[in-house]
Design goal:
By secondary structure, this protein is an alpha/beta fold. It is built from 16 helices and 19 strands. The protein has a 7-stranded mixed sheet with strand order 1-4-3-2-7-13-12. The chain has a 6-stranded mixed sheet with strand order 16-17-15-14-18-19, with helices on both faces. Helix 15 (456-471) crosses helix 16. The protein is globular and about 65 Å long.
């Protein structure tokens, strides 16, 4: 039926939260490359987390624009939820959803999507980015929202909708909250995900009325913001007729997958940084309040919502997206490589002096990124990387070394910008399995690297749901301390 994410149980099982009463919990993780449905169960003094269903996901080119296939995503999730209902005969207490940020669904008067949602990589926002810059300086936008002005942000996408003639007052929901809406009938924006829109007042949990007015966006179209761990109500629709879902609550965890992934780190103390490593790499640290100094803006750090009202202060760094795009290019040239084989072969190669900017804007677009990397290398007098698929390990080695060097640079800036001292790094997400990249990061930064859950967003999602059920729907959501306690329970029981 599925594979265990964590197969071993501790000898001493931590006490179950009384509000859960032995029932299972479902975590849905939406990914730009794959989506997962996972199940936490408590049986015979043992807790386990099982990956019940995974299916591929990717943006599709529809007449020159990149779109998400909502029907396919929703169909895959329903299949996973039905499998969970078959497995968890003890009943399912709750379902929570996290996923990637910034993309959204616009709704018609009937509550159905007006169109297939755009992917953040679609180039339509280049024009709106230019338009915004004529009206609002980038540093002013950063001061207002705490968020780096990136063309992928929801703000720029909504403005592109205006340009396309889509009614500005058409309601919208970010993708994870749209799935919550399908499950509960309740329309909300969860705090951590809302901050990614670049439309929330810095340091608050309120939409910026000033910004909506200045840019001609409809504040009425935006959903109400709720804290992480908000219980939205019972499951509705055909799924609720299944016995396991008879009394299931729908919970908004940290709907942004990075915020859930950071919530899934059980680290003690204040002296650690994180790298959430996947398609993107998010490199940063938790802060009690935003840091929006001119120096932070120049260094490209952003301030995004975290569980319990904390701030994820980090920089977006291009991640394993680069290698996966190269793999697609090599496949088209006749050779199909697996990531693990490339990493194993790259480990045998000597260090390279080749350096390029992995965050150069052209490298964010799909296609032949290797040719764009070579343009950078040529411009600064380096030799180019071979395009032949047989030289893929050499390219992989250079890519990983440049990622690690960028991580180290970002981590070194945090103490100077915030005063927060960093003595260790926690790597979570799928990239945490890349032992070579972790070793290179440790070497480049001079800091010890520890790995958390590869499925840290799943674990954070589950822990937030546990804390919410125990808090019995507190309007304040959940605290970071409560969530961390549940993460430690999961670690103790499942490792």
């Amino acid at each position: 039926m599925g594979s265990n994410l964590t197969s071993q149980c501790a000898q001493k099982e931590p006490a179950l939260p009384e509000a859960i009463d032995g029932r299972a919990i479902v975590a849905i993780d939406l990914g730009a490359e794959s989506c997962r449905v996972s199940l936490l169960r408590h049986r015979k003094g043992c807790s386990s987390v099982e990956l019940v269903h995974r299916f591929s996901n990717s943006a599709e080119d529809r007449h020159g624009s990149l779109r998400w296939d909502l029907d396919s995503i929703w169909g895959g999730l329903q299949e996973g939820l039905r499998k969970c209902a078959t497995i968890a005969t003890e009943g399912i207490a709750s379902i929570g959803v996290d996923g990637w940020a910034v993309d959204y669904v616009r709704l018609g008067t009937d509550g159905r999507p007006l169109f297939k949602p755009y992917c953040y990589r679609d180039p339509r926002t280049f024009a709106t980015e230019d338009w915004v810059r004529t009206r609002l300086d980038g540093e002013d936008l950063y001061r207002l929202t705490g968020v780096q002005p990136l063309r992928i942000n929801t703000l720029f996408q909504l403005l592109a909708d205006n340009d396309a003639g889509i009614p500005t007052n058409a309601p919208w929901l970010n993708l994870p909250e749209y799935i919550l809406y399908l499950l509960s009938g309740v329309r909300v924006a969860e705090y951590s995900n809302a901050t990614h829109t670049q439309l929330v007042e810095c340091g608050s949990a309120k939409w910026s009325a000033e910004l909506f007015h200045l840019l001609g966006l409809s504040l009425e179209a935006a959903p109400p913001i709720v804290p992480s761990g908000t219980i939205l109500g019972p499951l509705r629709g055909p799924l609720s007729e299944l016995p396991a879902f008879a009394h299931t609550q729908i919970i908004a965890p940290a709907c942004h997958d990075t915020a859930s992934a950071i919530a899934g780190i059980s680290a003690e103390g204040e002296d650690w940084a994180y790298i959430s490593s996947g398609t993107w790499s998010l490199v940063g640290a938790l802060l009690p309040a935003p840091c929006t100094t001119p120096a932070a803006f120049t260094a490209k750090f952003t301030n995004l919502g975290a569980t319990g009202g904390e701030i994820c202060f980090h920089r977006n760094v291009n991640g394993m997206w680069l290698l996966r795009q190269c793999i697609e290019t090599w496949k088209a040239a006749g050779k199909e490589w697996k990531v693990e084989d490339l990493v194993a072969a790259a480990r045998l190669l000597p260090p390279s002096a080749l350096r390029f900017d992995i965050d150069e804007p052209s490298l964010l677009l799909p296609g032949d990124v290797l040719s764009r990397i070579n343009l950078q290398l040529t411009a600064v007098g380096f030799e180019t990387l071979p395009a032949d698929p047989d030289h893929a390990p050499e390219v992989t080695s250079v890519l990983l070394q440049n990622m690690a060097a960028t991580y180290a640079q970002v981590l070194a800036e945090i103490p100077a910008l915030t005063g927060k001292q960093i003595h260790r790094i926690y790597v979570v997400g799928g990239g945490s399995r890349n032992a070579l990249l972790n070793d290179l990061t440790e070497r480049a930064s001079g800091l010890p690297v520890a790995t958390g859950f590869a499925e840290s967003s799943t674990m954070g999602n589950l822990a937030i749901q546990q804390a919410a059920l125990r808090a019995k729907g507190s309007p304040a959501g959940v605290s970071a301390v409560e969530v961390k306690a549940h993460v430690r329970q999961l670690e103790s029981a499942c490792r």
